[in-house]
What does this fold into?
Amino acid sequence: MNADSILRLLDANANRAREGLRTAEDYIRFSLGEIRWAKRLRANRHALTEIVDRVVPRERLLAARRVGADMGHPSANAEAHVPGSTDARGVAIRGLKRAEEAIRVLEEYVRGIDAEAARRLSEMRFGAYEAEQWLMLCGERAMRLRSSCLYVLLTGSRCRAGLEETARAAIRGGAQVIQLREKELDGAEQLERARRLRDICGERSALLIVNDRVDVALAAGADGVHVGQTDLSPGEVRRVAGESVLIGRSTHSVEQARVAVEEEGADYIAVGSMYATRTKAGFELRGPQLARAVHAGNWPVPIFAIGGITARSVPELRAAGVKRVAVSAAVAEAEDPEGAARSIREALDAL
It folds into this structure.
């Protein structure tokens, strides 16, 4: 290949990579409302331009470009006019795959010119692989989480109607997220319960989150894992699970909320405790004022107020800016868990 051919190859693949990344970025931002990955893909687009400009000045790439003679030009490529899929998620995934391939081509052809640029391109390509994993496994889950307002935590020993029936009743009453919270059981027992709840949630389009145990969440096929301040951090969970599960983080101050979202990359946060609670020993009472302060941060993740919440306390929380709540005893210990969940959901929906 002559020099102009190499320049055209670099130009075409740089354009293809940026276009593929942008296709996925816009779907994630506008269809899923997910900011964390949209920002990462945008940063990669900008970094890609900077890397290519470092290797070859942009003017040289533009001078070598032959638009009319390009085999991919619509006039020479009938396939470009064939109607494609209307599945927006599929379009975004194909965009990422094009970007991955194009970045690999760039990486190989610049390796002998600039080793540092090739290294950065390699990191970018693996980042695109992670984005594809997240979009395939968690994109739809993240959208469902964002549309959820009632999250119910269940411990078998506290469920008056039994764990599984309480889960079914809570979902019938309007719960969209169920968390298995079993602090006293060993891993095998947790896994057995998680698998049963996974089936119940799957039948009713609810999300299943496992408290603390990322291994149990992965083995059970749960939608996510929730960690407290003394557990693994969201970053450590991702080193184990990759981008295959949603990750929630308990927070008890504005600073903890900021760190969880901005530094740790949590998919959602729980903020509390709003009121006195029997569910968690040694709870930190923070009150609705903390919920107001955290919501003022305008962080782009779902925020669930938690701790001692009942249907009667929802109006006060709504006045503090709360749109989502997580409850446990109010549903699990109720004589009528379906009715209890419905009362909370109606209180949330009414305001």
The chain has 15 helices and eight strands. The two ends are 67 Å apart (CA to CA).
